[in-house]
Amino acid sequence: MAAEAADKPDAQRERMIADVEQMARDTAQATGRPVLDARVLAALRKVERHRYMPSAHAARAYENHAQPISHGQTISQPFVVALMTDLLNLKPDDRVLEVGTGSGYQAAVLAELVRAVYTIEIVEPLGRTAARALLAAGYWNVHPRIGDGYAGWPEQAPFDAIMVTAAAPYLPQPLVEQLKPGGRLVIPLGERGGVQVLTLVEKDARGRVSQRRVIDVRFVPLTRKTAH
Ligand code: SAH
Fold this sequence. Notes:
Layout: H1 2-6, H2 9-26, H3 28-31, H4 38-46, E1 67-68, E2 74-75, H5 78-87, E3 95-99, H6 105-113, E4 116-121, H7 124-136, E5 142-146, E6 159-164, H8 173-177, E7 179-189, E8 196-203, E9 209-217
Parallel strand pairs: 3-4, 3-6, 4-5, 6-7
Antiparallel strand pairs: 1-2, 7-8, 8-9
Helix pairs in contact: 2-4, 2-5, 4-6
The structure holds S-adenosyl-L-homocysteine.
S-adenosyl-L-homocysteine binds near residues 73, 105, 150, 166 and 220.
């Protein structure tokens, strides 16, 4: 009976949360966040990560690892999703931009926490698959778009928070411009193939921008041309 219950997605997600919490404690020296926001953890507990993965990998959906999706891309590690979400200090009324929809999983986690999520994916088939998964899961507050997220989404700007889930060699200026004063942006910064540093960018009430290095990470690169 116990083993049967443990195999249910709910129980698997509970174990995933425990792993995420442990990793938060283990990395606290670098991140400064030994305990992640309870609302963020509640969102991870709720989102069915297996819905955003190819069926061949879905059995491993609740392991605290990145996994392949398709087109050489990955669904991020649950801990990294939790940490990046936590760093944004989101409020329920926020409107958030995500660059790099990928599987749609991170967008779903954001959609649990805020009013509206605008998410851009450059690889069209990935963006379409993610959009379908998000609709099937009932996330009407996610607005997906195919395109180059480097330029942000000017028609919907400014945003309370911005999350970039692909690594860039430098901070895209259009995204900084589309961030509200008082807003936060997280992005992995680093050269292709090298070490990347998850970076927290803050714009203060007077529009001054500061950056803080959080922790080393590994993301697929932010590309600039529409790939098919
Ligand atoms: N947030 C995703 C992780 C995706 S991996 C998730 O939860 O699954 C990064 C994604 O960024 C890839 O799908 C990649 O195709 C996409 N990407 C890379 N460069 C991009 C760009 N310039 N604009 C939008 N998406 C981009």
